[in-house]
Amino acid sequence: MWSEKYRPHSLEEMVGNEEARDRLLAWLRRWKRGEKAALLVGPPGTGKTTTVHLVAQKLGLQLVELNASDTRTKDRLSRRVGELVGSANLFGTGSLIFLDEVDGLAGRSDYGAIDYIRDAVRRSTNPVVMAANDPDSDEVKKLAGVTRRIEFERPAPEEVERQLSKIARKEGASIGSAALASIVEAANGDIRSAVNFLQAGGAARKDEELTAAQSVDEFLGAHDAKSALSAIRAYPGQPREKLRDLLVAVAKARILEERRANALDGLSRADVLMGRIMRGKDWRLLRYLDQMLATDVWSALGDGGARYTLDSVPWPLQVRIWNDSRRLKEIGRLEGRRTGISQKGALVEDIPFLLVLSKDRSFREALVHSLDLDEGYAAFLAKEAARSGRP
Length: 391
Description:
Blueprint (H helix, E strand, L loop, with lengths): L1 H4 L12 H12 L7 E5 L6 H12 L2 E6 L6 H8 L13 E6 L12 H11 L4 E5 L5 H5 L4 E5 L5 H15 L5 H11 L3 H9 L12 H9 L4 H9 L5 H14 L4 H24 L5 H16 L13 H9 L1 H15 L3 H7 L1 H7 L3 H10 L5 H12 L4
Parallel strand pairs: 1-4, 1-5, 2-3, 3-4
Helix pairs in contact: 2-3, 4-5, 7-8, 7-9, 8-9, 10-11, 11-14, 12-13, 13-14, 15-16, 16-17, 18-20, 19-20
């Protein structure tokens, strides 16, 4: 896999964010006990985690990495971090404690996690680095008093393009300037995704410029699998949006139920693949997604009958999202994080079904427990479940 083959092995090999990397390195070199932690903030894929690994390697520090959104309560954090903040590692060298995704601590049943982190930073005998994707999250704001913020930005398109050109030359891959520019645009500053797209032969490249409606309708009405594949590859949005638009089209189509069931079965397999891609950041698998849709979904629909439709969220649910936005959005965020999709995707795809299933008390309680929500959410879900199916 090219993204692994060409993963940076030194800070000098990284693309973009030179100033941010230099600031972190300088901070670590002069760090003393009692100083603030470093907080790296910036979009996913901008090199925050890789930078921490390479800086630790450069300075000979033993890296101890924890995901704060997984180790999210005070008790769990104290069990994992407690001894680290006050001791050296087994080899007698310095340690670097890295807490990733600290913006994933909100909405939990134990709100002591942030306070524990602040206290741990103040008493730690080892430097602490944290990372967050959302610079405006409440968690990032609450940690401001004990952190020194370092901003990471998406690399400039020309920097990404130079890196891809270098890799293409080394691999003997031929790619035109237009295709290269399309990959750079689709990756949106995420180097790993860009390299995976390049290896896939330009999987991010659209065969032609189509709107979402045109792409879906041409896919659904295609005369052969090759045409269906070409149409769905031209979809202009994100893969999750593509699956959602196809799901709505199939669900609302006036077609034989057997055909609908077969198409939905194909979409469910594609969704499983998409979840695997998102959870593992295994972007090379994207090359199989469109092929799966053309093979499983298009072939199941036969001679068409389904069409793109814009209204993917039922009106009653839209009203309820507006009226109870805080709690529904929080459930959507946590469910999305668990399944590897966005908050919006979870609200559209998962929440309607979760509300119906929450009519069952045991399911409702299991959901609240699995998302680490407080008991008030159980009553909220019970109320919403009772309203499901009514305008």
